[in-house]
């Protein structure tokens, strides 16, 4: 499996051939950065975690070069930071028992460029290499430009597929801006309260981000709990977390 950037990384935790691993994927998440998948798609990770016949696939489109750094990581170059983040994403894939983890390593400028050939080719290869039941993408009200770029490139790639090859369900997921303000009839409430220890561990893997002073672990779990409690006013909480 070959992608356009020479630094792209394909990781199959159980060491099966990559093409086979991708073809087994039933739940696919495409996010901009290392850690977005674990924030967005915990429900999908849980759907596959211990279910025979279900397989989770993760795709990170950018190289994670521009992340903020303090403390332990303060002196790291962009290059070293990319290496750390690639390893963190691989560790998450191992922990969450993903079928495959692909990191395309594009500079974030590429994904903001409509029709960027390398990004388009890579996404086409991924979307045509599997037949997922559900695809998790960034949501259109997200306030991070790179997330919107990745969402737009994914929609271009999905719309370029023949009708019969398109996934049955495509969901926009919360990261940089939540979606509790949407009317209930337009929301899809995903149960992200399952496997809470795994959920927290998957977020804590990204030490380079959390140590940079951003408590994504606490914030993400807190949002899931808040969504579960505030989802319906007259019923008791049915699940521990909602995305
Ligand atoms: Zn992100």
Shape assignment: globular
Q: How much strand content do the residues show?
A: 5-15%
Rounded mean pLDDT score: 94
Task: Spell out the helices and strands N to C.
Answer: EHEHHEHEHHEHEHHH
Strand order of the largest sheet: 1-4-3-2-5-6
Structural class label: alpha/beta
Largest sheet: 6 strands, mixed
Determine Rg (CA atoms, Å). Answer: 17 Å
Task: Give start-end ranges of low-pLDDT stretches.
Answer: none
The N- and C-terminal alpha carbons lie at a distance of 32 Å
Helix content: 25-40%
Q: Cofactors and ligands present?
A: zinc ion
Number of strands: 6
Number of helices: 10
Descriptive notes:
With 243 residues, the chain is of the alpha/beta class. It contains 10 helices and 6 strands. It has a 6-stranded mixed beta sheet with strand order 1-4-3-2-5-6, with helices on both faces. Helix 4 links the parallel strand 3 (56-62) and strand 4. The two termini are 32 Å apart. The mean pLDDT is 94. Bound molecules: zinc ion. Zinc ion (ZN) binds next to loops.
Write the layout of secondary structure elements.
Layout lengths: L8 E3 L6 H6 L3 E5 L4 H5 L1 H8 L6 E7 L15 H18 L4 E7 L1 H4 L5 H12 L5 E5 L6 H15 L9 E5 L22 H9 L2 H4 L5 H15 L13
Parallel strand pairs: 2-3, 2-5, 3-4, 5-6
Antiparallel strand pairs: 1-4
Helix pairs in contact: 6-7, 8-10
The structure holds zinc ion (ZN).
Zinc ion binds next to loops.
